[in-house]
Inverse folding.
């Protein structure tokens, strides 16, 4: 019997597994591919030694989780090269035009040795004995005290709990759940990067840098193969060089012309940056052709957009035996690698909460919920201070208040749903939509009042904290920072109410 089975060897699953293994817990990670990394894929060019990221590559200064993890793993971060002129290619025949010198990547950062170095470091901490590659999950079933996982090759695993760290839409399409769960929120969540394709090539020297260009370009004409390009080389100097780009061609066109894509890529790169790029050999990663990334619905919905996930993707199911992780389930930075790490942190918190730890009110219905909220207030503030101190101790002061506040709020709201699942209501109290709507409205008012007091306590604490004087942005929170925190809390509250309505509807139907 495995303690924790994690399905999905991308950044979220690996980070979570490595953390649990480091604590001495019994954990096994199952990955469908024969490699780790998920949407992270790094290839090293044999001639130049440059690491070329064909999947996720960038993070930003206001994303502290990835920066902190890179530092703990001893991985060097470099700035995305953005210096020099950009180009615009709106006419296939006339060639590129200057498009200014303003940076376009917003201070983006990369790892010197590619994101694959982080995947390798995490896998090393996890250990080969805890890895199972080539395991395609087809079903998960709840037995009442553990879960069974069935894989396409006929193997089965039993675990006290399971974490599915794979794109929600893919899980909805390919995994059967028994008992069934509502997969509509999963199927609605777009998989980030799923319909895209990326290319990268290394060259002995970077002629664009020699010409004072940044490597950034945009193409707008209808025959463009690449929609944008960017420099993938290291800071300083012009040799060796590396250039990358995202395809403008849709997934169907890429599939139809797959054999000729390398030549077409090299041709556009040469048109932009010099004839010597015509002889380069581009690497191509078409994520739409990856069955363990791209669901069928992602191909019919290719326009990329980030949105906060529904609460259902962030809740534990089956009495704490089934959890979901991955970048699409993140409240902060969904679609980014930072979001993947945020989801891993959330699951760690959920796994660390002992079962049966809730103190339910003795009174029935909403009176019981009010009593529980009152009793939970001190613990919620303690949770905030715990998360704040953790971030400061890990030298992650950037937006520490925002992250710690949301962490504490999500803990309380997650527990609140469990409280409602256990509360006793009078016969017929939830039998009609009107009655249920009134219950949700009153519960929302109680939760809003609780959260208002909680946030007031947080702001007062920060202003009076001597320790936070070393972090001015966290000590005296600027108005726009406070508004961002309140917006986070409001979104979490809205997700709670939507989930509560669904829970009460299911409960009424069952009776």
């Amino acid at each position: 019997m495995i303690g924790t089975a994690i399905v999905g060897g991308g950044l979220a699953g690996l980070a979570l597994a490595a953390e649990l293994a480091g604590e001495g817990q019994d954990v096994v990670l199952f990955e469908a591919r024969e490699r780790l990394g998920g949407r992270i894929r790094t290839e090293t060019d044999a001639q130049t030694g440059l690491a070329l990221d064909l999947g996720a590559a960038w993070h930003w200064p206001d994303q502290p989780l990835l920066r902190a993890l890179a530092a703990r793993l001893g991985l060097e971060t470099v700035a995305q090269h953005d210096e020099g002129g950009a180009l615009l290619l709106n006419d296939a025949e006339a060639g590129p035009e200057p498009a200014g010198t303003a940076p376009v990547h917003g201070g983006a950062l990369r790892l010197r040795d590619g994101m694959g170095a982080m995947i390798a470091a995490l896998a090393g901490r996890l250990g080969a004995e805890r890895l199972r590659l080539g395991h395609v999950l087809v079903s998960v079933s709840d037995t009442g005290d553990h879960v069974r996982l069935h894989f396409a090759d006929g193997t089965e695993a039993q675990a006290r709990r399971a974490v599915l760290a794979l794109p929600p839409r893919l899980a909805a399409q390919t995994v059967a759940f028994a008992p069934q769960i509502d997969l509509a929120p999963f199927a609605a969540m777009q998989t980030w990067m799923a319909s895209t394709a990326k290319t990268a090539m290394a060259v002995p020297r970077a002629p664009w840098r020699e010409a004072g260009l940044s490597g950034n370009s945009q193409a707008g004409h209808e025959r463009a193969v690449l929609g944008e390009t960017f420099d993938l080389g290291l800071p300083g100097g012009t040799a060796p060089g590396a250039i990358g780009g995202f395809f403008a061609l849709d997934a169907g066109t890429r599939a139809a012309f797959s054999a000729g894509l390398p030549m077409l890529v090299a041709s556009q790169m040469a048109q932009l940056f010099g004839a010597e790029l015509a002889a380069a050999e581009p690497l191509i990663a078409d994520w739409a052709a990856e069955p363990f990334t791209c669901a069928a619905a992602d191909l019919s919905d290719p326009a990329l957009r980030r949105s906060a996930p529904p609460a259902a993707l962030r809740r534990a199911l089956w009495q704490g035996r089934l959890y979901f992780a991955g970048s699409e389930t993140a409240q902060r930075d969904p679609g980014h690698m930072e979001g993947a790490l945020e989801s891993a942190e959330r699951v760690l918190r959920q796994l660390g909460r002992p079962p049966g730890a809730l103190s339910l009110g003795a009174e029935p219905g909403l009176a019981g919920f009010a009593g529980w909220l009152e009793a939970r207030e001190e613990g919620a503030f303690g949770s905030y201070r715990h998360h704040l101190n953790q971030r400061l101790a890990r030298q992650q002061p950037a937006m520490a208040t925002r992250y710690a506040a949301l962490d504490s709020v999500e803990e309380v709201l997650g527990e609140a749903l469990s409280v409602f699942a256990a509360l006793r209501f009078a016969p017929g109290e939830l039998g009609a939509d009107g009655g249920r709507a009134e219950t949700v409205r009153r519960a929302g008012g109680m939760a809003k009042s609780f959260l208002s007091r909680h946030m007031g306590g947080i702001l007062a604490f920060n202003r009076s904290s001597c320790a936070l004087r070393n972090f001015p942005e966290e000590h005296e929170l600027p108005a726009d920072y406070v508004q961002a925190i309140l917006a986070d809390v409001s979104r979490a509250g809205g997700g709670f109410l939507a989930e509560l309505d669904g829970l009460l509807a299911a409960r009424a139907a069952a009776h």
